[in-house]
Amino acid sequence: MAVINPLQRLANKRDHFRLVSTNSLVNAKGLGFSASAFASIARSASAALGLSLDSEHLSEIARLGSASASRSVAGGFAVLYTSKDGRCFARELADEKHVPLAMGIVPVASDVKTEKAHEEIVGSPFFTARLKEVDVTFQRMLGAINRGEVDEVCRLAEDDSLSLHATTMTGKGGLILMSPESIHVIRRVRTMREEGVPVWFSLDSGPSVFLNTHLEYLNTVCGDIERNCHLPVIKSGVGGPAYSLTQHLF
Q1: Which of 65, 94, 123 is where one domain is finished?
Q2: Angle, CA of 98, 239 and 169, to the nearest 5°
Q3: Same domain, residue pair 61 and 89
Q4: Structural domain containing residue 220
Q5: What is the pTM of this model?
Q6: pLDDT over 60 at 53, yes or no
Q7: Beta-carbon contacts of residue 2 (< 8 Å; ≥ 6 apart)
Q8: 117-152 pLDDT tens trace
Q9: Minimal CA–CA distance to 182: which of 112, 116, 119, 106?
């Protein structure tokens, strides 16, 4: 309850503020914009209100926006927990150095409202089966992360992505989040893997594709997609916890 008391004391204040959120990418879907936005809001609002909250309590606030935002506050490979008293927060299981995973990000635009996926998935006849599958996959993922097994982490992420999209596609509205560009990238990833390059794909609830691989193969993977799929690729890695830029500027 530590996170509630300081907020309750501020509940009756009438101070005004202006909140502005921007992204460096605007023409893409399925890249965690809501996760980054709500994680940033939790961090900046806490600083503006003079609250000294640790990462766990900050992630509890970010959860009011989305579960992915809560994990983004914690950073690294984070797990979302729900306590017996109803609190929902995230903790970092391992940092970005423990599993040296590199990724290329292929932004793909779409006019589909990805938030509809949350409504569609529960109407799928495969929803119950997916819940059982997620429990098994989650335990396997925890083990792979603890052991620092990049290949297994990537493989499990790819399998879960296919399961997620299969469920959204079989909801009442038949929501198809992938685009022709997504399929083109996925096929190219599988071709590279057949040729001996350790690379796997994953997707969130959108058409943008993540190319998950080892750091030493990142340039090879990104260059291949740019040449053969004619799409831009952003080189990246596993992000750390949310932080305030002012802490790094002054």
Answers
A1: 94
A2: 105
A3: yes
A4: 101-237
A5: 0.87
A6: yes
A7: 57
A8: 777 888 899 999 999 999 999 999 999 999 999 999
A9: 106
